Amino acid sequence: MTWWREAVFYQIYIRSFSDGNGDGLGDFPGILGKLDYLEWLGIDAIWVTPFYPSPMADHGYDVSDYKAVDPVFGTLGDVDALLEQAHARGIKVIFDIVPNHTSDQHPWFQNAIRARSDPDRDKYIFRAPDADGGPPNNWRSVFGGPAWTFHEPTGEYFLHLFAPEQPDLNWRNPEVHEYFDGIIRFWLDLGADGFRIDVAHALYKDEMLRSQPEIRRVPGTQYQALEGTYAWDQPEVHDVYRRWRKIGDSYPGDRVFVGEVFILDPATVAKYTRPDELHLAFNFFLVAQPWDPSRMKHAISLSMEEMRLVENKPTWVLSNHDVVRHVTRFGGGDLGRRRARAALLMMMALPGAKFIYQGEELGLEQVEIPDALKQDPVFFRTNGKKPGRDGCRVPLPWTESAPTFGFTAGEPWLPIPPEWGPLSVAAQKDDSESMLAFYKEALLASKANSESIRGGFEWLEGPEQCVIFKRSGSHSLVCVCNFGSQAITLPLSGEIMVASEGEGARKVGSAVELDGNCAVWLRA
Ligand code: GLC
Known about the structure:
alpha/beta; 2 domains; 14 helices; binds alpha-D-glucopyranose
């Protein structure tokens, strides 16, 4: 049994987790100071978002040096300390790697724009204007606007699927492969347990760069979808991961690659996790589902079916740093939190790895950031038509004291809502009814039932407003999630193990009564 297959990963969006040096941005010393918390919570691994030197046009997803640490986040010594101290607690650590694009300040790009003849030019995708002087094709940036920017001095356009400060690399150039082999080895040598691969499906583009037949929005996100067409998910990309897998496998320990394949089609995502490719890929299907039992059931069932084909397990994600926090998606406030608790219990009973985004264990909601304080390029690239992703990236409240809530001794890079005191770690940690206490309880319960959660899966029939399934190992675990607002009585036997609300599930003779927007695990 490999550690990652059923692991609970906790995503640390480093800028917003905990600030150790008072500059208002989270950093490695901040993470080091919270390892006790993470151990207490009971997660298995952390994923740290990009911390490499970067001009921060996309908050670190624009890397100018892949083998160093940006001074705002700390030093290589801090990374060493994190690996050592996390490992001492039995926590694995994976880092983010950004292979689709570099920063425009990366030395390669700086050379590339010097002259068309520069040898580094071919490491990016430069093309002559079309006959009318416009961009070479109709591709749109995921962040809005065209995916091409004209470089006046050298008279060609360069491709950027994201911001213009993030020029796309040309993976048809062998030097790009060698470069990333070296980067992977560098961090694995240091002791990293693996990588989360940023836009893993995007590395190769159609060789002829043909125009997209259709452009639409990715449901549930602010992104433009270019999927199923020419801008990404090309067959050649799979060889990159076969090569990386061999590198990972040449290291002792169980190193893991997790792909961000932001395509809402589990069958396509599954291809990236064939046995000789990535170990895991995020399955974002739940992120795109509203609070609706038939949609959720369909998403789960399709994900499991497709992932089974590749003998790997699916993965589950409810929130991350790019999407609206799920408490808000599920209705916001106490209702949203109640549903989020139920969703967690349902997710924890599913087979495969789970990804928790920092702050969801506190029940944080999406925050409305005033335009003047916004930082996300999505907001600027769409001329304010889209709100941007800052609202899910607000720093964590650790203590109850406004305005900094123990996140920083300085001024937080985004303001923390003044009413977040009761949501802070300090306010929730010793309150057995709190969201935080429930997350810990659900994580513990999933460990205690790991054998069933690794075992068989079967849908059970029931009323339309419920999703009900059974997991079987040495004992059976039945998970019921009631998506309706009314309590329901179900003819299910078995002892109540855990419910998403303290008194939310009750035994009534040989039946179970389950409150609305509530989930329960029964031991059969
Ligand atoms: C991924 C990241 C996102 C980033 C983008 C470009 O989708 O999760 O935050 O903006 O890639 O690197």
